[in-house]
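Please review this one:
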Amino acid sequence: MARLEVKNLHVSIEDKEILKGVDLIMNTGEIHAIMGPNGTGKSTLSAAIMGHPSYTVTKGEILLDGQDVLEMEVDERARAGLFLAVQYPSEIAGITNAEFMRAAINARRPEGNKIPVMEFIRKLDEKMAVLDMPEEMAERYLNEGFSGGEKKRNEILQLMMIESTFAILDEIDSGLDIDALKVVSKGVNAMRGENFGSLIITHYQRLLNYITPDVVHVMMNGIIVKTGGAELAKRLEVEGYKGIRDELGLEVVLDED
């Protein structure tokens, strides 16, 4: 079992503090969801975990199996088993999906032990079939000309191929119609198991109808204010965030996400 720990994390951007002491522990075998109003720091948390250079950690720790993630470069974090699916994936001309994923897989394997071509092709065909993706998607340039739904499916395909230990899915449901949402959820659910954990950032209960979380966190004003089971997300769908604010006596203070 692997563990990702966030301890008293404070993060600023351009001298403005966004995260104000986030605490979170996630193990493999678990799916966690973070919900909260716009501008409360959810995407800032994902960016800080992966090492986005625009975000400055001013206090706290991020540990992966006891290793200090903050001492790692972004590529080292990825090779160590962290994966981030962002809201707006970049388009990269000249690099095909297949080339990108094979390079990413090999980056996590020991030197001199690259994945054999036929093994890669078989695995790629298998995972694309799970996501109902046509074969020609493998030879298209990375995200170039992709629709929003295609980009989201493609990120889940990358996750399934790379087999990262912890996946942070930042609003993976954004802009998806119901059919695409079901397919993306199918891919995430196919990854569930004792060697995989995921942190899903979302605004809406609808995604969690298809990916049932083990733990739900509510983030407000740069901290996690409440944690519970899947029923907490259903409560938010009925009451909105006002019910949590009223319960905890919180004021509405929104920072940039």
The two ends are 31 Å apart (CA to CA). The domain at 3-90+167-248 is CATH 3.40.50.300 (Rossmann fold).
